[in-house]
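During the no-cost extension, the postdoctoral fellow (Dr. R.K.) reprocessed legacy sequence entries with the updated structure-token encoder. One reprocessed record is reproduced below for audit purposes.
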Amino acid sequence: MNPVDAFTLVMEKDIVCAPAAVFEALAQGLLFQHCGALPESTRIDFRPSGEYVLSFGADGEVRGTFLCIAADRQISFTWGPQTVVTVDLTPRSGGTH
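Re-encoded structure tokens follow.
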């Protein structure tokens, strides 16, 4: 693979909720909706190998597959055909990192 084709982007955020609450919000598709997906068009089969479809209206559609689901700890999924997104939930005093 060409180094230009592969990179890692790390984003960090502290949330004032327990990991279980953050995990549940992610399972319901709130992460996608906060990125602009239309709630009425969001279809999620939240299980390993389950698929999702998101519509962003005039900006198009994204499809992906859930790769790893570890309750209250991690969710990993594809974003389109070539991108993998991993969300790690780490308990911290007063919430989740």
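Residues 19-27 form the longest helix (9 residues). The first strand starts at residue 43 and ends at 44. The remaining legacy entries will be reprocessed before the final report is submitted.
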